[in-house]
Amino acid sequence: MIKKKRLLWPWHLLTGLILVGLAIALWYSTSLISYEWRWNRVPQYFAYHAEEAQRAADYGRVESIDADGSRARLVLSAESGGQQVVEVDRDSLQVAVGDDVSEGDSLGVTRHWAAGPLLWGLWTTLWISMASGALGLLIGLATGLCRLSPNPTLRDLSTVYVELVRGTPLLVQIFIFYFFIGTVLNLSREFAGVAALALFTGAYVAEIVRAGVQSIARGQDEAARSLGLNAAQSMRHVVLPQAFKRVLPPLAGQFISLVKDTSLVSVIAITELTKSGREAITTSFSTFEIWFCVAALYLVINLPLSHLAGRLERRLGQSD
After folding, report:
1. Is the pTM of this model over 0.85?
2. CATH superfamily, domain at 117-318
3. Where are the transmembrane segments (predicted)?
């Protein structure tokens, strides 16, 4: 019996119509509150032309000005006998040949592209996520193995840590770590934020690791031990590689959540992506535009991470 091929394009069309309907609903909602869209104000928060003032270093005179395209090269003779050569943008010249200048007088400006606050916030979110994610993975791996340890002290301490962290809000943990531990140990806000996120992530990774190891058949460890491997070697070479394949999806989900959780460190004055967005709103008054851009930047981080985890999971699945 020949199986009929199912048509998928009507469903894709329906998906597109639903998305268009949501966009129209959003536009209509903003029109009800008389919101004026100002997307032209947004690009400057990604990149802008920064101006750097060029000033005279000493008292002297402008000897010559040589124009070269959009740039102008100034040669100044100082009263002390030396010379100062300065390049500025031609349209910003504020002196002419023969003018006397004093120390600190503005000669013009040079313009160059600079990263805006949203890009700087994106970079801060990235490095905080990577640092706290790496530390959290190490903490979680060690804690997860401690929860499986035959040593009662290691099991008890790791259980207390996991339950304490998972039972309290991350925001409260950040406050405690920064205002109490950070003050006592004189830690920077960045260190306190990364440490709080790492400890929070480590508790959840510990449970993921514990569940993954316990999901492996006990016979795998017994077979490894019968071949002469000790407990540590069996865990490292036999059990953990198999458990890693099973815990990859929840680990990827945890790290994606970590990227979003970095927005909470803004409460201790770390200018990551969310705080940069709030600051941009105060100067642009483009509330919806900025928040949509912030959401898109989080998607730029998380979608490739999710796609990479999916590809890695499929590749590891084929190796079974």
Report:
1. no
2. MetI-like (1.10.3720.10)
3. 7-28, 126-146, 167-185, 191-209, 280-301
